[in-house]
Amino acid sequence: MREFDLVIVGGGPAGMAAAISARENGLENIVILERDSELGGILNQCIHNGFGLHTFKEELTGPEYAERYAEKVIAMGIPYETDTMVLNISKDRVVTLLSKGRGVEDIRAKSVILAMGCRERPRGALNIPGYRPQGVYTAGTAQKLVNCEGYLPGKEVVILGSGDIGLIMARRMTLEGAHVAAVAELMPYSSGLKRNIVQCLDDYGIPLLLSHTVVDIKGKEKLEGVVIAQVDEKKAPIAGTEQFYPCDTLLLSCGLIPENELSKNCGVDIDPRTNGPLVDEGLETSIDGVFACGNVLHVHDLVDFVSEESARAGASAADFVKRGGTADSTEPVKVIPQNGVRYTVPSKIHTAELTGDVHIRFRVTGVFKDCSIVVKAGENELLRRKSRILVPSEMQDIIIRQDKLADVSEDICVEIEEV
Amino acid sequence: MYDVIIIGGGVTGCAAAAELAKYQLDVCLVEKESDVCEGTSKANSAIVHAGFDAEPDTLKAKLNVRGNAMIAELSDKLDFAFKNNGAMVLCFEEERLTDLKNLREKGEKNGVAGLEILSGDEARAREPRLSKEVKYALYAPTSGIVCPFEMTLAFAENAYANGVEFRLSTEVTAIEKNSEGWKVTTDKGEILGRYIFNCAGVYADKIAEMANAGDFRIIPRKGEYMLMDKDAGETVSHTIFQLPTKMGKGVLVTPTVHGNLLVGPTAEDIDDKENTSTTAGGFAEIRAKSALSVEGLPFGKVITGFTGLRAVGDTNDFIINEGAEGFFNAAGIESPGLTSAPAIAEMLREMLSKKTDLTPKTDHIDTREGVVHFAELSREEQNALIAKDPTYGNIVCRCETITEGEIRDAINRPLGAVTLDGVKRRTRAGMGRCQAGFCSPKTILLLAEKLGCGIGGVRKTGREEVQKDA
Fold first, then answer.
1. What is the structure's pLDDT at B469?
2. Which helix (H) or strand (E) holds B395?
């Protein structure tokens, strides 16, 4: 059986950044396993620009951003195996993989980093009534067809959900010659980044219908149109507001789901709020030596944040292996999301064995204006940061200094204080 | 000139084709869609009913019980998924125990073995997630679950292997009696046959009418369903029915043979024989009614909803008769039609044997091998397969672990898939939690390669001819 210090499941931005960091932190015997034919993950189909502003201080396209990391992986001589699907990860870190060349094979890992990314919420999970014709795609599937296969699925488009991929695809389909009639969003606010609304909708005169949803899909074999209705504050369609939009394409951008089937089978505890693993400050899951980063951990809006987070996972895995694979010996304190905070990553911190400052990432539950992010351990305020506006579509990243945490033994609460 | 023309490529028509293919007969099956299993057979509860529901001495009762007894062996020989998981009918009111007892009695008259009435606690001991409101349950050990796509395809492929000719994408437009038998006019020309089997599902009344071979009506009864992720597949292990309640006819909660959880159906008589749309009201009804059986079903794990149309006749029973000289109806095949299909096929063959001598073939093939299910093989079998054909080492559908080899087989085999849905029914590619988001671009390319068309020529479903324009 082949043996590795670190097996990284997924060769997208998370997996590559984790691998580079693990190598920089002294791990030699690493392998990246990638199910696609090349490294890069979903970035390979994201041919628009806007990637890398934080990491490289310049605007790159998705493939360019991926290439920077892939080149580094190759330059550092980190082994990677493409067209390789991981079928199972056991609790004792035996990884079962499948490839044309090697068939089904078990390999043994001293540590594992989960970097499988996420998938899109499909039509069925949204319970949209109507027929099931050709012409209904998730935005990412359409992106793959347009950008990688050179095929435009339709000419008259409606988009449900204002997630970033949907917004990007509104622009993409327009540039490719299709007409995008509207983007309908169930919530009273967009789930996409502000800059994408401006650059992908406003610039092309595409209406964003907030508090609207698709209530019927027409056309038995091929999509003929959708009915869009306004919804009330309970998100129930309001009778009488229905409007028919003839279209041959309906794109869905209604949320991303971390792809944790391997994690669950391995026994990793999952946070029902993120659908990603529960992790500590080093991004270690409930299984010793198994770490998670990127969109499999929680859905990010910026790849730059994925890379940064994944580098921390890589360093933690290297540290775990160098310590001889021993588990943390102290009890962690919990990190509890409160008023206005939907979740936090991490969900626990080993305050007694910190080796650096701690990032806490989270999303808010709604739109907050002129507020403060407050982090407390009992009465002890660890951080207070004012903010003009916080929206659910933008992940927050705060850093708590190591010296502030060292003596903390009470649970840590993260909350939003409105002025 | 065929001996028999079968109209309809659903489970009834395909089972009849497989049955007739055992004899020295020239048989042709005509189907308006581009694939078999495109109507009622593809959208139903997928239950192998025990047979306690039908009124004694009806065709439904006899053919259900007979079909139930046949399916285990057929699933083995023809390679389709079947599991004998048992069923329970739940009773929520003390005073309705009589109804449950009547059901048992009816079942016993029908010849259903092993029926047993359980107390609520006994039922919950066997099925722990059942609601506290369950007072009694009728337990039916012979009930099962099946893959309706595979079952229909298995009959079709076996019939094909034994010489039945399939004319797909061929719609019957007129039927005339002539001196030798029947002339069937289709959108692809005329077909002559001595006998006709009308297995046309919700259209069986229209087909009979064309031949002046019956004045029954088929009313499509809409049934909406919700299907949940395999994560939820172990919520119950039995098929859970309900006695009718104040809310009307109940819905079932059942595992599927592939480990998902299926909830539904609603029941609404409609006019439109093509209306397979789902509705917000249907979904709401399913949620409300199923909560009686199992509280807190994880509706957040729904991966798709769909609608099937039961072909309900106006006689309260299956309509299986010789509607005109040499024209046999198998109509009104609503529930338990899937279970009964092999028995209906036997009955049709029996009726035909009274008209013409049937000579068994000496070279009949009574087995069929379906598309391999890579994920279900042992490690050794998987590696042997990859060594022989490396495309089995390439996963296309990650949710269901379906390989390129399986998809190529589904496309290339006789009566192979020509649409995305056809691939899905044969392999399960796209049937998982991402609902084809990741695999469809890859499957489209494999189909386009086989069909010799561009991406735009690959259809999700439907009856059109392959367009080679894109």
1. 43
2. strand B395-397
* Residues A361 and A410 reside in one and the same domain: yes
Contact status, residue A91 vs residue A286, Cβ threshold 8 Å:
no
Model confidence pLDDT, tens digit, residues B368-405: 999 999 999 999 999 999 999 999 999 999 999 999 99
In which domain, by residue range, is A69 found?
A: 1-119+255-326
Q: Tell me which of A98, A146, A217 to substitute to probe the interface with B (most B C-beta atoms closer than 10 Å).
A: A98
Q: Cα separation of B214 and A3, whole Å?
A: 72
Residues A217 and A190 in one domain: yes
CA distance B309 to B350: 28
Question: Which pLDDT score, from 0 to 100, does residue B470 have?
Answer: 39
Confidence of residue B465 (pLDDT cuts 50, 70, 90): low
Instruction: Give the ipTM.
Output: 0.93
The model carries a pTM of: 0.94
* Cα four-point dihedral sign B185, B190, B194, B200: negative
Going by DSSP bridges, is the β-strand pair A2-9/A249-252 parallel, antiparallel, or unpaired?
A: unpaired
Who's near B397: CB < 8 A, 6+ residues apart?
A: B427, B428, B429, B430, B431, B432, B436, B438, B439, B443
Write out pLDDT tens, residues A354-376. Answer: 989 999 999 999 999 999 999 99
Q: Are residues A320 and A346 in the same domain?
A: no
Indicate whether A248 and A134 sit together in one domain. Answer: yes
Largest Cα separation within chain B, whole Å, is 66
pLDDT band at B464 (very low <50, low <70, confident <90, very high): low
Domain boundary among A210, A225, A254: A254
Q: Is the dihedral of CA A80, A83, A84, A87 positive or negative?
A: positive
B181-215, pLDDT tens digit by residue? 999 999 999 999 999 999 999 999 999 999 999 99
Same domain, A16 and A87: yes
Which residues of A fall within a CB distance of 8 Å from B227? 124
Contact flag B302-A124 (C-beta cutoff 8 Å): yes
Of B278, B382, B436, the CB nearest to A103: B382
Matching CATH number, B1-81+147-217+314-370, of 3.50.50.60, 3.40.50.970, 3.40.50.2000, 3.90.1150.10? 3.50.50.60
What percentage of residues in chain A have a pLDDT greater than 90? Answer: 94
Dihedral class, residue A88 (left if φ above 0, else alpha if ψ from -120 to 50, else beta): beta
Give the mean model confidence (pLDDT) for residues B450-465. 87
Instruction: Give me the pLDDT at residue B468, please.
Output: 41
Q: Both A319 and A334 in a single domain?
A: no
SS3 A199: helix
Report, at the CATH architecture level, how domain B374-457 is classified.
Orthogonal Bundle (1.10)
To the nearest whole Å, the CA of B211 is away from the closest chain A CA by: 29
Asked if B302 contacts B319 with a C-beta cutoff of 8 angstroms, the reply is no
* Backbone torsions φ then ψ of B62, nearest 5 degrees: -65, -45
**Rg of chain B, C-alpha, whole Å:** 22
Which CATH superfamily includes the segment(s) B87-141+221-308?
A: D-Amino Acid Oxidase, subunit A, domain 2 (3.30.9.10)
Note the pLDDT of residue B311. 97
**Of B279, B302, B445, Cβ closest to residue A125:** B302
Name residues of chain A where pLDDT drops below 70. Answer: none
**The total number of structural domains that make up chain A:** 3
List, in sequence order, every residue forming a beta bridge with A108; answer none if it has no partner: A3, A94
CA distance A372 to chain B (A): 33
Read off the CATH number of the domain in which A190 is found: 3.50.50.60
CB contact under 8 A, A141 and B464: no
Reported as a single tens digit per residue, the pLDDT across B248-278 is: 789 999 999 999 999 999 999 999 999 999 9
Both A192 and A206 in one domain: the answer is yes
| 8 A C-beta contact, residue B171 and residue B186 | yes
